[in-house]
Amino acid sequence: MTDPILLTVEQGLARLTLNRPASLNAFDADLAVAWRDATAEAVARDDVRAILLDANGRAFCAGGDVLAMATGMGEGDDITALAQVINEGILSLTTSAIPVVAAAHGTTAGGGLGILMCSDYAIVGAGSKIGSLYANIGLTPDLSVTAQLARAVGERRALQLVLQDRMLSAAEAVEWGLVAEAVAAPAGSETAEAEADAVRERAEQVARFWLAGAAGAYGEAKRLIRSERSRTYAEQLAEEARSIGVAFETTDARARVAAFAAASRKSARGGQAEA
Fold first, then answer.
1. For the chain, which residues score pLDDT lower than 50?
2. Are residues 245 and 195 in the same domain?
3. Rounded to whole angstroms, how far apart are CA atoms 231 and 236?
4. Residue 55: enclosing H or E segment and its boundaries?
């Protein structure tokens, strides 16, 4: 049996790959459990400082597996239980202090939109499409869509997306602020596969940028923003003050602050000499 999600870790980067390409990486019970377990492992490992979320096949994620729902789920309680399992993985990523980049090529729809928004920096293909589509089959949004969408794009745009069968183009998704970048295939190789490869390559560049810098500080900045809603304004200011103090004590920060100060002194001396 093929694993429904793949987890690899190399040089500080954990790669989580949805691996149900024949079903457009839609979630069934097996993928739900594998997702929960893989995300929990990724955020718990001491050797992981950045996470890349991608998918095999021609789509990123089509949400829930409607065929599995129709043939293998007996009651609404079964659907609720399945969503709760997937939610555990969503919480693992969004509450961690590890930055997450998504390489979301092809189509993202339904609950896949929530999976996309688990990332802190999302990259799609120039030909990608993103939508909600829940109401088309009489269902309501889940997998964090109502928890994250309005915060990402604003309430009015969130309503526009969930109350119509609209699919955003990649350019619209960037303009709305739903994703950070749209990447095209290299000139001369304009295929879906080449575009997917380009999206994955760009996502890995983003992750490597974090790893080459102060990955811990990027992760803490992500945590501060992601967790802000749980605090009052005054509590958030206090948490910022506490966090920067903790960061200042790290070996990484000490070295970077010292290097910055040395470069500033050198620049100042050069300016004085020229004057």
1. 273-275
2. no
3. 6
4. strand 50-55
User: Are 175 and 238 part of one and the same domain?
Assistant: no
Q: How many CA atoms lie within 13 A of 90 on its CB side?
A: 21
Give me the pLDDT at residue 127, please: 97
pLDDT for position 232: 97
Nearest to 15 by CA among 79, 98, 71: 98
**Structure-token match 């691996």, residue found:** 19
- At 136-180, the pLDDT tens digits run 888 999 999 999 999 999 999 999 999 999 999 999 999 999 999
- Domain extent, residue 256, equals 231-274
Asked if the structure places residue 247 within a domain, the reply is yes
Euclidean distance between CA atoms 190 and 259, whole angstroms: 44
Nearest Cα neighbor of 105 from 133, 131, 130 is 130
User: How many structural domains compose the chain?
Assistant: 2
pLDDT at 227: 97
Looking at the structure, do residues 104 and 191 belong to the same domain, yes or no?
yes
Co-location of 49 and 160 in the same domain: yes
Judge if 197 and 246 occupy the same domain: no
Contact 98, 51 (CB under 8 A): yes
Q: Distance (Å, rounded) from C-alpha 262 to C-alpha 241?
A: 25
Helix pair 155-162, 145-153: axis angle to 10 deg: 130
Each residue's pLDDT tens digit, 213-236:
999 999 999 999 999 999 999 999
> Does residue 29 form part of some domain?
yes
* pLDDT at residue number 272: 59
| DSSP label at residue 229 | G
> Can you read off the two tokens belonging to residue 211?
């790893």
